């Protein structure tokens, strides 16, 4: 991986991701040259001013870990009344997203290739997000690696500060054990309320597209669990 395509982050002892040096296609490399100036944001530029970045005032949605970006681009195309910020550390996914978004003419999307905790701390204002979504994060399924899971008590309190009152944190996973862990963390988290009256898992909201990965899992009989919690 060349230096110019490396994610940005500040040094810390435990990260929720590893840098996987996936091979960049020529198309993805060209996407950085052509579209990063349009969509890219830098951790080291400090707090983002959404009105300046998007040229308007609109509800702000942030997604952590968008993978190859297809579902995030689809949401930006379908929810044109909202502005979207995506955070991802893997350059091939970032390259694919900005390429497909650029080719589709998407204008309500910005991207960080950086550590999510750092972006939340340094770039996102408190009480600014209408929705924060984390879909299919790395489950770190080995017990010795559970501490690397991104959904942890301290992290969801960090997110809470960034949400507007009534804003929602939407989590989704296809690992039942991680779903149980997420629910345990969220049920214990101060300042949040489960949007389901029965306190259970949520049906998939219409705004979350079904990914190819998810469809494949459904065919194999794998479950998917959504959790939607609102800031009180």
Care to describe what's here?
35% of the residues lie in helices and 19% in strands. With 232 residues, it is of the alpha/beta class. It has a single domain, classed as Rossmann fold (3-Layer(aba) Sandwich), CATH 3.40.50. An eight-stranded mixed beta sheet has the order 1-4-3-2-5-6-8-7, with helices on both faces. The longest helix has 14 residues, at 26-39. It is globular and about 45 Å long. It starts with 25 loop residues before the first helix and ends with a strand. It catalyses: guanosine(46) in tRNA + S-adenosyl-L-methionine = N(7)-methylguanosine(46) in tRNA + S-adenosyl-L-homocysteine. It holds the Pfam family Methyltransf_4. It comes from Gilvimarinus algae. Catalyzes the formation of N(7)-methylguanine at position 46 (m7G46) in tRNA. It is an enzyme of class 2 (transferase).
Question: Can you lay out the helices and strands and say which pair or pack?
Answer:
Elements: H1 26-39, E1 40-41, H2 50-54, E2 60-64, H3 70-78, E3 83-87, H4 91-104, E4 109-112, H5 116-123, E5 129-135, H6 153-162, E6 163-173, H7 176-188, E7 192-194, H8 212-219, E8 225-231
Parallel strand pairs: 1-4, 2-3, 2-5, 3-4, 5-6
Antiparallel strand pairs: 6-8, 7-8
Helix pairs in contact: 1-4
The portion of residues assigned to helices is: 25-40%
- Largest pleated sheet: 8 strands, mixed
What do we call the CATH homologous superfamily? Vaccinia Virus protein VP39
Radius of gyration (CA) equals: 17 Å
Strand content: 15-25%
Count up the domains: 1
Order of helices and strands: HEHEHEHEHEHEHEHE
The secondary structure category is: alpha/beta
- Spans where pLDDT lies below 50 across 5 or more residues: 13-18
Ends: how far apart? 43 Å
Global geometry: globular
- Kindly provide the name of the CATH class: Alpha Beta
CATH fold-level name: Rossmann fold
Tally the helices: 8
Provide the CATH architecture. Answer: 3-Layer(aba) Sandwich
